[in-house]
């Protein structure tokens, strides 16, 4: 169920893709944690939970651990160790970088002042706002057509399709009693037999019915069924023989392994 | 018999001007010269002449409607003298309550767009989430694809409504960034002066 968290599809402003890719990119410093909208991730996960009928506690637990770690990462990134950062730069370099950022911001701030003035000038100008006008639909130009070809095409469509036989799809179930009697007869002749060998050559449906017959006989206590290993041949023996030669523990073991 | 002399002759683009006028009345956003030429199935030069005629007719002081060259096209708007009356009946909801943060954000998008939200936040130094959401809701900015690479951030650009609200013919009408703001060197010198003063 861990994949329920890792496969969580995210559509955030700073990232689009599965949650595990986001984690990878964050760990590789390809994305800054401060750019990620953590609330958006939580909302996406809660929506995923709401879509499912059952509460997946494993997924919830894993998500809580991951999101808590991401939140801590983001918090650390938002409040970096200033002393460590500054120690990497010479004072002139730090001043240069700071000045560059400040100048960039100040230019935008001044641009916003200009826009504010412009807005004030335009405040008295009213105009109509509405949806975009409908674009005229382009005319579809058809190549020259021959009516006879259309007639031919329609005639071909009008022909009744050939009847398809579904007879091979019909399932014929032989009666279970038939196999019950057959297995009883075999056990009268032999003390035990292999189910697979006995039903060899029968269709899948017949084999299924034969197995149902085995279950019926087992239910009535007439036979014992054993199987050495999963997918090994199923061995059938008379119930009295089985009880005499095998103890109850082996039967329980079979039952448990079959289950 | 001589025909009477006609002192006032009809302008040859009068009929075209009436059609252009009708198109501009119907349109809810500015129409470009090319769009008008296509709709009227006429020559761009004749459309320009017709627009010149309409500009004279629909100008401040002559009509309650004025023809504006805005957002890369032509559109009708209300004359300024009608602004007070318009304000009693209508409002301009797009710029109502536009915060300083939103204005700074829209300035960044207008000058640097298409630009992503993290980039806006880096320039402004604070998260731009609510400002961007507010501008998108107002229709002043719109998504313009994503940054390249896996999980690229959404990028934004300004819309033609932005140009219309701010009365700009196009984004080229924005003042050059070099002409506004302080010089980087001046800021750096001032920073160093402050640093030296603190050290001493």
List keywords for this structure.
heterodimer; A: 259 residues; mainly alpha; 3-stranded antiparallel beta sheet; two-stranded antiparallel sheet; 12 helices; 5 strands; 59% helix; 7% strand; disordered C terminus; B: 200 residues; alpha+beta; 9 helices; elongated
Protein described:
- The complex is a heterodimer of chains A (259) and B (200).
- By secondary structure, chain A is mostly helical.
- Helix content of chain A is 59%, strand content 7%.
- Chain A has a 3-stranded antiparallel β-sheet. Chain A has a two-stranded antiparallel sheet with strand order 1-2.
- In chain B, the strands form 2 sheets. In chain B, strands 3-5-4 form a 3-stranded antiparallel β-sheet.
- Chain B is elongated and about 80 Å long.
- In chain B, strand 4 and strand 5 (154-158) form a beta hairpin.
- Chains A and B meet through helix 2 and helix 6 of A and strand 2, helix 4, helix 5, helix 6 and helix 8 of B.
Write a compact overview of the structure shown:
The complex is a heterodimer of chains A (259) and B (200). Chain A is mostly helical.
Shape, principal axes of CA atoms of chain B? elongated
Largest interface comes to:
A-B, 51 and 63 residues
Assign an overall shape of chain A.
flat
Q: What is the string of helix and strand elements of chain B? A: HHHEEHHEHHEEHH
- Ranges of chain A where pLDDT stays below 50 over 5 or more residues in a row are 248-259
Query: In order across it, which strands form the biggest sheet of chain A?
Result: 3-5-4
In which range does the helix fraction of chain B lie? Answer: 40-55%
Alpha plus pi helix count of chain A: 12
User: What fraction of residues of chain B sit in β-strands?
Assistant: 5-15%
Structural class of chain B: alpha+beta
């Amino acid at each position: 169920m861990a994949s329920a968290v890792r496969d969580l599809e995210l559509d955030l402003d700073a990232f689009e893709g599965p949650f595990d890719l986001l984690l990878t990119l964050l760990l590789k410093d390809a994305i800054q944690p401060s750019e990620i909208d953590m609330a958006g991730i939580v909302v996406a996960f809660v929506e995923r939970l709401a879509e499912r009928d059952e509460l997946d506690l494993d997924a919830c637990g894993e998500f809580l651990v991951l999101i808590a770690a991401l939140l801590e990462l983001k918090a650390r990134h938002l409040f970096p160790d200033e002393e460590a950062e500054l120690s990497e730069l010479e004072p002139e370099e730090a001043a240069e970088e700071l000045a560059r950022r400040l100048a960039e911001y100040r230019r935008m701030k001044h641009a916003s002042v200009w826009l504010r003035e412009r807005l004030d000038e335009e405040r008295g100008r009213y105009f109509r706002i509405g949806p975009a006008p409908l674009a005229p639909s382009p005319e579809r130009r058809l190549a020259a057509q021959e009516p006879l070809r259309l007639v031919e095409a329609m005639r071909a469509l009008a022909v009744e399709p050939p009847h398809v036989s579904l007879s091979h799809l019909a399932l014929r179930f032989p009666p279970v009693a038939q196999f019950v009697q057959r297995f009883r007869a075999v056990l009268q002749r032999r003390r035990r037999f292999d189910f697979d060998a006995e039903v060899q050559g029968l269709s899948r449906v017949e084999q299924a019915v034969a197995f149902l017959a085995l279950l019926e006989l087992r239910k009535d206590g007439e036979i014992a069924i054993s199987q050495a290993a999963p997918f090994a041949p199923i061995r059938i023996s008379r119930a009295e023989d089985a009880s005499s030669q095998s103890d109850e523990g082996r039967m329980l073991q079979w039952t448990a392994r079959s289950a | 018999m001589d025909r009477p002399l006609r002192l006032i002759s009809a302008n040859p683009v009068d009929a075209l001007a009436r059609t252009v006028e009708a198109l501009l009345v119907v349109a809810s956003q500015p129409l470009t010269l090319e769009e008008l030429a296509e709709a009227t199935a006429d020559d761009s030069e004749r459309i320009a002449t017709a627009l010149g005629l309409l500009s004279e007719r629909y100008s401040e002081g002559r009509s309650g409607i004025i023809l504006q060259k805005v957002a890369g096209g032509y559109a009708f708007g209300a004359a300024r003298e009608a602004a007070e009356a318009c304000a009693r009946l209508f409002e301009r909801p797009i710029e109502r309550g536009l915060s300083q943060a939103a204005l700074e954000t829209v300035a960044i998008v207008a000058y640097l767009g298409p630009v992503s939200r993290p980039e806006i936040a880096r320039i402004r130094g604070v998260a731009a989430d609510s400002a961007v959401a507010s501008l998108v809701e107002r229709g002043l900015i719109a998504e313009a694809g994503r940054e390249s690479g896996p999980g690229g951030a959404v990028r934004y650009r300004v819309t033609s409504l932005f140009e219309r609200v701010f009365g700009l013919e196009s984004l080229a009408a924005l003042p050059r960034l070099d002409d506004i703001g302080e010089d980087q060197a001046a800021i750096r010198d001032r920073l160093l002066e402050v640093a030296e003063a603190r050290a001493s």
